[in-house]
Amino acid sequence: MESRVSARRLAVLLGPRGGGVPAYSWLADGIRQLVADGRLLHGTRLPSERELLGELGVSRTTVTRAYGVLRERGYASAVQGSGTVVQVPGGPVAGGGEPLELASLQPTADGVVDLTCAAPAATPGLNRAYERAVQRMPSFIAGAGYFPLGVPELREAIAQRYVDRGVPTDPDQIIVTTGALAGLAAVFRAVLHRADPAIVESPAYPNSVRALDHSGARVVGAPLVTDDLDGVAGVIRRAGARMMLAMPDFHNPTGAVWSDEQRARVAAMWRAGGVTGVVDETMADTWLDRPIEARPMAAYAPGCITVGSAAKTFWAGLRIGWVRAPHALVGAIARARLSMDLGAPVLEQLAVGQLLRTQGGLSDESRRGLTDSRHALLGLADRCPGWRVEVPTGGLSLWWHLPGDSSTALVAAAERRGVLLAPGSLFAVDGRGLERWIRTPYALDEMTLRRAADAIADAWADVAHLPRGSETLRQA
Ligand SMILES: Cc1ncc(COP(=O)(O)O)c(C=O)c1O
Question: Which residues form the HTH gntR-type domain (predicted)?
Answer without folding.
Answer: 21-89
